[in-house]
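Hey L., structure's done. Input below.
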Amino acid sequence: MAVFFDYDDTLINTANASKAAYESVAELLKAEGQYASEVDTIIKAYRELLWSTPNDSYKVETPKKIRVKLWESSIQKCVHSKSCSVNHIRELAEKLYDMWYTTRLGAMAWIEKETVPTLLSLRKKYKLVLITNGSSVIQWEKIKKMEAQKYFDHVLVSGDEPYDKPHKSIFIKACTLCGVLPETCVMVGDNLATDILGAHNANLLASIQYTGSSKNKPSPGNLSNDSASPRFTISSITELFSVLEEIY
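Output:
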């Protein structure tokens, strides 16, 4: 028997940390004066560029180099009517990245105070595997920041694998590492389109959606074609004990 866990917004508060980071960036932009009216537009442009950046890009360049360029592009798109030198925009982009990065990483914490005790208790009975999407360097930085790897038997980052969740291969690899069959495993995650659909694709025994994070999630009754319905839903990680007892 094995239990697989998503990381971002299932075990750690990534959404809240990102929110704090963008708020810090907004204050920095406002302090610059000439960008005060463009703050929301610049941040929106950056977020769109960030989400559209392929994970493979981070295998070629460092996250800082890539993301400074994204901040530069965002500023240039939004303040094209202002006379700003290339050097000024570059310097500002580096400041924005440093503020965003430092604030975001510093604000990351376990999503619940019961998270670690729950993992320690579950590991006495089940094999635990962390399965997270994202570039290798970025995800491992977050994992090591929380020392999360010591609470799991195995850690799989999609950036180190051929495919992201919801492709079944990363789940099957987790099963193989644990020496168990897919039909004896359970997936716990917040995202219907990656965690829950991935569990379905890999024919796992059950999927459990965690709804305790601050992110907005589609309800099981309003699913897209790119998502699946969880067998169970929990709002606190401690609910896992009773749910797993019911499953097994």
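The beta strands are 2-5, 127-132, 154-157, 185-189, 206-210, 232-234. The chain has two domains: 2-13+109-247, 15-107.

-- N.
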